[in-house]
Design goal:
about 450 residues; mainly alpha; Growth Hormone, Chain: A; two-stranded antiparallel sheet
Amino acid sequence: MNNALFRRRRRMNDRAGSPMETDLLRKARRYRWLIFAILALSYILVYFHRLCPAVLAVDIMRDLQAGGALTGLLGAAYFYPYALMQLPAGLLSDSWGARKTIAFFFVVAFIGSLVLGYAPSVTTAIVGRTLVGLGVAMLFVPTMKTLAEWFHAREFAYMTGILLAMGGVGTLTAATPLVWLSSAIGWRHSFVAVGGFTLVLAALVWIFVRNRPADFGWPSPFSVEKTAPPAIGLAEGVRQVLTCRHFWPLTVWFFFNCGIFFSFGGLWGGPYLMHVYGLTKAESGRILSMIAVGMIVGSPLLSWLSDKIFKGRKPVLVVAAGAMVLIAGMLAFDTDGMSRIGLYGLVFSMSVCSSAIVVIGFTMNKELFPVRIAGTATGLINLFPFAGGAVFQPLLGYILEQYPKTGVAFTLPGYKAAFLALFVSALIAFGAALLTKETFET
């Protein structure tokens, strides 16, 4: 049914409860789950691409004759375009639409995977990795925009929680399953195979995903709007977000909270466990796997607590921020005194309170602004967690270098000083959480 015919039928069936409208609402409510399934599967792939070099690093260094510094640059080449593309992702989500944005840039990620897989040198591999980061950077923000169009505001936090939990699944698949795959076909063909899967997902997005129910001539699954609200231009959308005073406490919280998570969970947690506690790489890896478990369990759990128990966003955010003060305090003031079980609990708790909790932060940000600029608002806020990681990873490395080392290993005084910086950051994040605005509406 085309849009013109749908509008004529709507005029003939003007009452909200008409049989035709009820049937279309049922179709919209069923179809949105197909859209969500495709986007959730795509988000697993985003995390897989993000973390897979860690498993393949030794093979890549050997075959491309790359040293540690170049291999580190290869891994980081994903993050720079990912961070830089967050604002364009928001603008394209609101103007070009999520369907076109995701499909087009996943093709870019497919090309990057091929370049990486067939790279004759580390320089070419870095180019391929950069293209991968550029391509998958355009998934999260457009997906947030799509969820805002297809799901009720009361469902948004829970659906976002499930989506973020899929990132934990991606974290797991980038470990043992990738080891099996690379052992069977080699790291080069592994990247080519993953690239092929990326292309399949791009096709699925193009064929099945729609930006909003109205693209099918369907009413919204959660409301029946007789007339669409006027569009908001890109410049005006950015202005509305940046001039909202409630936006800025969230940005401070995101920056310092995610700075803690990315610096510990994304880089320095492993060396800390090996240098201070004398654990092997395998033992520290098992403890750090609690990051994935915390994401999988925590994201939907925190959404449920916000929607059903606290009936609010801010209490969950403040409690998590307060817990992070305690966690960072344990790292700073009991750096070498925790038991093995305590380390498992600490990493799991950090994952829940600094990674899974972002589902609440993104939901609060979305609820501050009209759905018409949901992409722009999400893109702008998503700059800050990656900026936090970009600042805190080298900052902790600089602090560690200021203290004597044992061979190549950093020492306990260095880790104490580095984690003291995380403790101060946690205090700042807690203060910012207290200043946020409650956005939950019944």
